[in-house]
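Hi support team,

I submitted a single chain yesterday and got back a structure, but I'm not sure I'm reading the token output correctly. Could someone confirm the output below corresponds to the sequence I sent? I've pasted both exactly as they appear in my results page.

Thanks,
R.
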Amino acid sequence: MSVALITGASRGLGLALAGGLADRGWSLVIDARNPDPLADAARELTARAGSAGTVTSLAGSVTDPGHRAELVEAAALLGGPDLVVNNAGVLGPSPLPAVADLGLAAYREILEVGTVAPLALTQLALPHLAARGGAILNVTSDAAVEGYAGWGGYGSAKAALEQWSNVLAAELAEGRHDVRLWWVDPGDLRTQMHQDAFPGEDISDRPLPDTVVPAFVRLIAERPPSGRFRATDLLDGLAA
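Hi R., thanks for writing in. Yes, this is the structure output for that exact sequence:
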């Protein structure tokens, strides 16, 4: 039985990816900050998994050390995580402020959720992943590498996420651990977070999160060497 631990899985890309894995018989440990949407997601995923997998949902913030420990313990009770998906993140204030106007308290929250907490969760899960030859999948963004006005907070958090991913991948390879670490840009998607970034605008031209799930499934199944990937490139490979 394969086990995935996915943060921020009550909606958007996290829920879509969890659904894609549930359809393929994976057992899941999922979290989100708000319990009601998480409970709805858990019911949907349990129905999709059927008898092939189980779904454990734990409401809480990834910034809470106790909650992170509960997530890893829940995965360990299922045999241990084969995959950790660091998907949870916060956009910050909406409308997006210029860097010169970004409040430092808001910036600290963006960094805590999007950079520090994923590292802390990864550190906790690494012994289990090493024992099972597992993988880490960090969800990033083109805002990590491009200078988009208004995206200084979120983009710099993702840039830091990418760099510690890059270094950890090198360290894992140096230590000859059979653990893959991928950081993946899913592209612009029709999610609530993306809508919050563009309040009042029509974002219906963006694809739904389900459309990129095959790219993530391919990555997980083929287990390429650690590195940065774009969902569009993986989808192009599938089309070819």
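A quick pointer for reading it: Residues 104-132 form the longest helix (29 residues). Let us know if anything else looks off.

Best,
Support desk
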